[in-house]
Amino acid sequence: MNFITLDYVDLSLAAALLIVNAGLSIVFRLGLERRLLIAAVRMVVQLTLVGLVLKALFAAASPWLTTLAALMMVAFAGREAMARQDRGFTGYWAYGIGTSAMCAAALLVTLFAVTTQFETRPWYDARYALPLLGMILGNTMNGVSLALDRLVAEAHGGRVAIEARLALGAEAGIALEEATRTAIRAGMIPTINAMSATGLVALPGMMTGQILAGVDPVEAVKYQLLVMFLIGGGTALGVFAAVMMGARRLTDSRHRLRLDRLSAQRRQ
Hints:
Blueprint: H1 8-27, H2 33-60, H3 63-83, H4 93-116, H5 126-157, H6 159-167, H7 172-175, H8 177-197, H9 205-212, H10 217-249
Helix pairs in contact: 1-2, 3-4, 3-5, 4-5, 4-10, 5-8, 5-10, 8-10, 9-10
């Protein structure tokens, strides 16, 4: 197996592309150069720390440490999902809805994978469990944040129609049916598009990395298919759970629309 080892010079050459992007931002007065620099530094620091942590977790092979790392990943994903929403829920629900949906979906699908497809390994083997969870969680996070954002936008924009249905005696679930459908579709579209384009338009990162590491392309395809199936399943479960909880939060036991449970719009 021919494995290409990268040194810091290789990384510096690739990072120089970001300097070009920052220069273009300055020339065209986009105002993105500072954000680009912060994002790049944050990425380097985070990945470096993650590499050191994973190295320690691989050596420890502890179910408790693996579980703790997984819960921390879910917690940070919930924070990112909340930050990406234009208008979220107030109080704990702003963080709790997305986080609980992602936790249930991503952990369930990851546990299913490590106990079936990787049954020869213990379920807590961090070398398998955490990378799988990271890929599933990242995509589920995008789907959940998009779905909740769309649900709130549909409920706020369609307030008159929803309240009219409720006034005519419709139950809350029926009155919000169109909004929930639209939100679920919005959350699933990125995953469906990624699955449709995989192979013909793009070679996914996992497959590309394995090929560069010397793995037979056919075997790399098998692993990539497995990951895409897991991502699709996890995203669908997370999106559905988040939208159902969000729709329930938008109404009360008296079947009233409760837009007062939403925070003020963040972007103008």
